Sequence to fold (336 residues):
Amino acid sequence: MGEKIVIAVDCAGGDYAPHEMVKGAIEATEEYKVDVALVGRKAVLGKIARHYATTSTFEIIEASQSISCDESPAEAVRSKPDSSIVVGINLVRDGVASAFVSAGNTGAVLCAALFNLHRVKGIERPALCGIIHTNSAAPVLLVDAGANADCRPGFLVQFAQLGAFFARGILGIEVPRVGLLNNGMEEVKGNLLARESYQLLKNTSLNFIGNIEGQEILRGKADVIVTDGFTGNIVLKTLEGLGDTLHNFVEEDQATGIGHNLQGSALVSYAQLDSMARRMNYEEYGGASLLGINGNVVVAHGRSRAKAMKNAIHLAHRAAHMKTFEAIKEGQYLAR
Fold:
């Protein structure tokens, strides 16, 4: 595969694997001109791929095992060395692939990455960097989005540094505004973790703007919102649920013709609601980047279909192109 940027795609993980994974990967090769390697059962993936008319070329890597969503992550990774997740992670480790994308068991992806790629020296805990895409002109990063349920204040400082670095390199925000998710604006508000993290963050050279309350997440006040993985994952899934609800509401109205009968300001409001529902759909951003390990890994939503996978592959390609993990390894996440 030479020096090309190749994205390894887990085609055995996720609710709609393998068909939607293959379809999304092929769409990514066509739309973004990305090179991909499909990971899974060769015979099955080859048969599915032949259904799609494409001039793109891609490799299929055999992985005879798969890890289901209800398996213990660490045990499954150890007992299934030929699973699509482990094989995909090892392709990154061995330099065959530049990044790995999976919609499979998130815990297994994290464990395989930690076991086989390892943490970047100096990083205490890798973090998932999720993208909240309600404002397409100014997406918000949420760190940690689910990798670390229990955190210490020092972890949140590193999450902020990694998030700010990602915002600069991938989103092009020169001086990202960093906010700490809390239940109040005042410095003394919050639990012990929030209060101690605030004190550490305000003494860094980050552009720390203080606490961010829940209702401000979607208002664009901060470019990077920092929290523990337990809270971050709940926030992300709540927003996904809201997006699904809005999307279903709009679809139901379109089916009954209500949207077509609106005029003036009501039509504008309806169009805005429709636009927000589309942007809040996780398919638009694809997945969350795992920052702080020796390789580029993107964790996609378990319910990902082709569009979400296509965008997750695009995100992984951008991270690989920007040499994200290499820059973190060199300590550039500490630069301001």
Remarks:
- The CA atoms of residues 75 and 108 lie 9 Å apart.
- Residues 1-123+292-331 form a domain with the Isopropylmalate Dehydrogenase fold (CATH 3.40.718.10).
- The chain is about 45% helix and 15% strand.
- Confidence is low (pLDDT under 50) at residues 262-270.
